[in-house]
């Protein structure tokens, strides 16, 4: 989770008085760190992962599954243990997440650049899972699904204990405020996003099977709806969201009923559209789980370069890890979470969402990146590659330039600084900018993009410049999660070792993001791509003392080199990436037994990319179909309590290695359950 602090938070009206102060001093705090740390070189390669878990209660007698709202209670016990443990002895670390049914676990210390550490990742994940499992009550289970299938559904209650909807924080038609973690940050985020934008958030995703009866859509999309008083300010959904249906889509041509219903708001039409799943609270985004990895780079220059390259492969790995086929109990017409979260935290005002406004912001603050930041490419780079509108905060931009930051990095932060701070702590406004970075992190940590460029935590921190890779969806088993962490961490090391470069225009990366969320995109979509090149010049510029691992000439791992971008299948894209991943493993120091184990993890990722085994999303869709045959459920209906119970029970059995699912995990899977 992002920046956490303690203390009393301000509501939106009181927060607005401090916005400019926080923005100005956030830049000052960044500049202090930047000046102190920009010259550091040669930091070792370290990395870690973040796993987010969902707590559930299963009742086999009643055939029900519910969310267990005990995460905070468990976290308090875990935190007590942390305080008694020396830093070097930490096995795992625990942090709160948005929902009170979620727990975030990370390794106690980072992994290092050795094959041995790579093959310990799954063991680390297993220990974390075992620790939480040992704190559960009878009937409780912990799962790693992106989204709880009945969250906000008409199958009520879906939480234990149960609570009414329409609380003062989210005012949701579907989720009670009690699902939000008790830490003040999360409720404040929820309420301030709603207050800033002037309405509840509006999340819409296509249904896989449209509701057959118009009358039933009112029931399904207006669960416990008490004439929402925010409907007078209908939202304009971001046009960059591939599955969001905006006001502009409701034209007479596509929706002739709109002409007959001019008096009704567009929001009402969105709610009642039988082709859409409508959601209205932050929990429908931040209540989802994901798999994130953070890498320490050798220098600030390398961190900037890795930020760019990882942003390009983000859509590819969002597609391969697709695991979000069910929303509000309905089978969705897309496979991934990204657009849902983007809309669920979209705090833009109506003016900022208006494409014709001078204050228009093209994206939600949860989105793909809008600017490359490396200083490796030449001056002609920006026009060709940074080719989408990326508004900036001019005051922040000038402040950064005056502070000695180069234009490309200054533009990056000035772009982030178009967003307002959302959580202000009453007693932490005037703080020492030489000792603290709270105001910087306030804005930095609430720009949720596919990759995040992370400075050292302080001017004297031993932690270096880092990059966080954020698109991947959480997987059902620790074997899968470990496999993706192993694969990505090796590819990052290959980028550094071989100077790999594969820039695309940002506009094409955005197009790839849209395609990555589509149904079974890993097998059916093509993605814009340019062949990966190994450039000694990159290594020489970013690591002057390092000898390039290439032969002195530009190398290419593709069967057919494309100097410019073209559309290719994920299978073709991954064949190129596999070349460099395999080469790094082959050339690395280590025992053959270790390399063999590493390749077992890599094999899972490769087979997913080739379509030989299913994504989590495809597998779950088939499991729902199997359950519906047993329960006689119909297409277009929400999952019943029993169908959700069957799905979660099977997920638990798969994770525990109690059932064999070669279609999902392949034949080489050997569960390591602790």
Q: What does the radius of gyration come to?
A: 24 Å
Distance between the termini: 26 Å
Rough outline:
globular
| Uncertain ranges | 214-220, 222-262
Number of strands: 20
Strand content is 5-15%
Structural overview:
There is one protein chain. This protein is an alpha+beta fold. Helix content is 40%, strand content 12%. The protein has 26 helices and 20 strands. The strands form six sheets. Strands 1, 2, 3, 4, 5, 6, 9, 14 and 15 form a nine-stranded mixed sheet that branches. A hairpin with a 4-residue loop joins β1 (46-59) and β2. It is globular. 52% of the residues are buried.
Record keyword descriptors for this entry.
alpha+beta; single chain; 40% helix; 26 helices; globular; three-stranded antiparallel beta sheet
């Amino acid at each position: 989770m992002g920046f956490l602090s303690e203390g009393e938070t301000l509501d939106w009206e009181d927060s607005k008085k401090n916005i400019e102060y926080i923005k100005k001093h956030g830049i000052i705090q960044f500049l202090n760190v930047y000046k102190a740390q920009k010259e550091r070189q040669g930091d070792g390669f370290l990395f870690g992962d973040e796993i987010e878990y969902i707590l559930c209660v299963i009742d086999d007698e009643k055939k029900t599954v519910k969310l267990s709202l005990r995460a905070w209670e468990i976290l308090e016990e875990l935190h007590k243990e942390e305080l008694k443990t020396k830093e070097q002895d930490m096995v795992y670390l625990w942090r709160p997440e948005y929902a009170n049914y979620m727990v975030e676990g990370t390794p106690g210390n980072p992994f290092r650049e050795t094959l041995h550490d790579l093959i310990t990742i799954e063991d680390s994940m297993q220990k974390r899972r075992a620790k939480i499992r040992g704190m559960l009550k009878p009937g409780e289970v912990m799962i790693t699904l992106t989204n709880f299938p009945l969250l906000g559904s008409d199958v009520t209650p879906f939480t234990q204990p149960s609570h009414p909807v329409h609380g003062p924080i989210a005012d949701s038609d579907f989720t009670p405020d009690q699902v939000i973690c008790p830490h003040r940050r999360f409720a404040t985020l929820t309420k301030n996003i709603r207050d800033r934008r002037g309405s509840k958030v509006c999340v819409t995703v296509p249904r896989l099977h449209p509701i057959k009866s118009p009358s039933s859509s009112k029931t399904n999309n207006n669960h416990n709806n008490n004439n929402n008083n925010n409907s007078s300010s209908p939202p304009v959904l971001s046009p960059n969201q591939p599955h969001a249906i905006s006001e502009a889509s409701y034209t007479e041509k596509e929706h002739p009923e709109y002409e007959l219903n001019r008096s009704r708001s567009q929001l009402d039409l969105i709610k009642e559209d039988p082709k859409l799943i409508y959601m209205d609270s932050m929990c429908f985004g931040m209540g989802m789980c994901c798999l994130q990895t953070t890498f320490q780079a050798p220098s600030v220059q390398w961190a900037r370069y890795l930020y760019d390259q990882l942003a390009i492969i983000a859509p590819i790995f969002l597609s391969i890890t697709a695991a979000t086929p069910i929303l509000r109990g309905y089978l969705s017409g897309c496979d991934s979470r990204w657009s849902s979260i983007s809309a669920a935290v979209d705090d833009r005002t109506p003016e900022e969402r208006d494409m014709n406004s001078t204050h228009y912001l093209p994206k939600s603050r949860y989105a793909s990146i809008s600017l490359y930041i490396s200083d490796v490419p030449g001056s002609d780079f920006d026009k060709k590659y940074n080719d989408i509108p990326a508004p900036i905060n001019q005051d922040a931009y000038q402040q950064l330039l005056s502070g000695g930051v180069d234009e490309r990095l200054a533009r990056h932060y000035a772009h982030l600084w178009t967003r307002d701070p959302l959580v202000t702590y009453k007693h932490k406004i005037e703080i020492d900018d030489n000792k603290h970075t709270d105001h910087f992190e306030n804005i930095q940590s609430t720009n949720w993009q596919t990759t995040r460029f992370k400075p050292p935590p302080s001017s004297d921190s031993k932690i270096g410049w880092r990059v966080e890779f954020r698109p991947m969806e959480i997987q059902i088993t620790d074997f899968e999660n470990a496999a993706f962490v192993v694969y990505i961490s090796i590819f990052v090391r290959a980028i550094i070792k071989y100077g790999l470069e594969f820039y695309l225009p940002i506009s094409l990366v955005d197009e790839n993001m849209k395609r990555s969320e589509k149904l079974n995109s890993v097998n059916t979509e093509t993605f814009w791509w340019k062949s990966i090149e190994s450039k000694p010049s990159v290594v020489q510029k970013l690591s002057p003392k390092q000898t390039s691992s290439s032969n002195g000439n530009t190398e290419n791992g593709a069967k057919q080199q494309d100097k410019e971008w073209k559309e290719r299948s994920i299978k073709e894209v991954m064949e190129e990436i596999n070349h460099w991943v395999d080469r790094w493993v082959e050339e690395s120091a280590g025992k053959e037994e270790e390399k063999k184990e590493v390749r077992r993890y890599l094999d899972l990722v490769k087979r997913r990319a080739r379509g030989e085994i299913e994504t989590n999303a495809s597998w779950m869709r088939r499991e729902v179909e199997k359950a519906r045959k047993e329960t006689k459920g119909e297409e277009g209906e929400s999952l019943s309590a029993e169908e959700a119970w069957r799905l979660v029970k099977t997920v638990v059995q798969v994770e525990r290695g109690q059932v064999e699912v070669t279609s999902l995990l392949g034949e080489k899977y050997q569960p390591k359950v602790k």
